[in-house]
Every structure is written in C-alpha cells, then in structure tokens.
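JOB MANIFEST
job_type = single_chain_structure
chain_count = 1
residues = 150
[input]
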Amino acid sequence: MKCPYCNHLDTRVIDSRPAEDGSSIRRRRSCDVCGKRFTTYEKVETIPLIIIKKDNNREQYNRKKIENGVLRACYKHPVSADAIQKTVDAIETKIFSLEAKEIPSSTIGEIVMEEMKSLDEVAYVRFASVYREFKDVNTFMDELKKILDN
C-alpha cells in the first residue's frame, strides 16, 4: 500500500478489525520511511448481478424491489419488520448462492414465493396473485389448494 504522505510503496499493517458496517475491514498502517500513520478500508469487490426481465430487457439487481414486493404483500397483516428483513436476507442469500452473473426474474420470483410461504400464508397468496398474474378465481383457488394440501 502506498503511503499517502510520502508515496513510498512499503507500509506496515499495525491493526486490523472489522469496520462498523461489518462488510469491510479497517486497517491502521504505518509508513516505514516517514513514520506517519493512516487508515485504509478493504471491501470485497462484487460483480453486479444482472436480472433478465420477462421482455428480455436487462437491469441491475436491486434489493429494494424485493423488499417493496414483500412489504406490499404483508401490508396490513401482522408480520414484524424484523421477520420481513430476515426473509429478504434469506431471499438475497439464495439469489447470490446461485453464483450466476445473470438471473431470470422468474427464478427470483420463485425464490421469493418459496420464502413467502414460510413467512405468512396470506402474504404468500397476495404475492403469488400478482406474480403469477391470476386471471380468474379458478387459478386463485388452485394456488390456495396447494397451500391447504401442504
């Protein structure tokens, strides 16, 4: 690491610890030449995940969209904010564990529905009705039967 004061290329790490955000490492360094100290932060470089939409357009992954969908499905229903965040975290973990650079939105929708089942059955049906675009009462009833059979 280059010293920001004298531009010398050799510096020593004095102390390392997780940064406050938990997603990076804070390192205290000391320059061997000028003796000054400075702090660096190391963060894992992530490759942006691309979502392939139904119309074949591509857009960058956005956690907020999943959060909004789950929140809308749980609207006016007794589901805690903590439970919603844990569900979104679990969804995100499953998405990134696929280790793909591009993922179809349909795959993400199925993962969300799978997690919604264990969160709240009513929220699951609400989400499924929008995601699967129920056209009539029969398709809605078919989805309800799947829940009741489990």
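[summary]
The chain is about 45% helix and 20% strand.
Helices lie at 63-73, 81-97, 105-119, 121-131, 137-149.
exit_status = 0
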